[in-house]
Amino acid sequence: MSQQTHIPRLNYMQQSPELFKKFFEFSNAISAAGIETSLSYLIDIRASQLNGCAFCLDMHIKQAKIHQERELRLHHVAIWRESPLFTPRERAALAWTEALTQIAPTGVSDELYAEVREQFSEKELSDLTYRVMAINGWNRANIAFRNVPGTHDKAWGLDKAGLA
């Protein structure tokens, strides 16, 4: 089996430092907005799985582990519908994440909207939507420029996850 070679990609963080800084600030503002940290990691992990973003998936699993997320739940994010390990609020957030990450031609159904509204206040749903928007943006940048998982672990403190 031959290994596929790729054209080296640019470092978007260095090439557009002001835009990177603003998007990073936007993401930090979302993190401070009120969606609980543990739920934020589940959202980021699920969107990254759906988008196939290895860099973000690696990073958010390590962040979740550092913040004491149970390992089995991390393994179950991909099968959250069948898993008994998630609360109704988490299930609603994961369903919303999937709907906004893989937008159907018909948009987001009224049924899903009603289900999510049962678990989230209007402000929380707005914050949740921004969270999904942000991770999808990060996924697209990291996929476009093929950032290698784990390359910033030490600088970002992700080596503390113990998942070398």
Explained architecture:
The chain is mostly helical and 164 residues long. The protein has a single domain (17-154), classed as AhpD-like (Up-down Bundle). It is built from 9 helices and no strands. The chain has helices at residues 12-15, 17-32, 37-51, 54-66, 71-76, 88-101, 110-119, 122-144, 153-156. It is globular and about 45 Å long.
Short recap of the structure:
By secondary structure, the chain is mostly helical.
Blueprint (SSEs and pairs):
Layout: H1 12-15, H2 17-32, H3 37-51, H4 54-66, H5 71-76, H6 88-101, H7 110-119, H8 122-144, H9 153-156
Attribute tags:
164 residues, 9 helices, mainly alpha, AhpD-like, 64% helix, 0% strand
The CATH topology turns out to be AhpD-like
Name of the CATH architecture: Up-down Bundle
The assembly state of the depicted protein chains is: single chain
Total strands: the figure is: 0
The first-level CATH class is given as Mainly Alpha
Q: So, the CATH homologous superfamily?
A: AhpD-like
Low-confidence stretches: none
Share of helix among residues? 55-70%
Strand content: under 5%
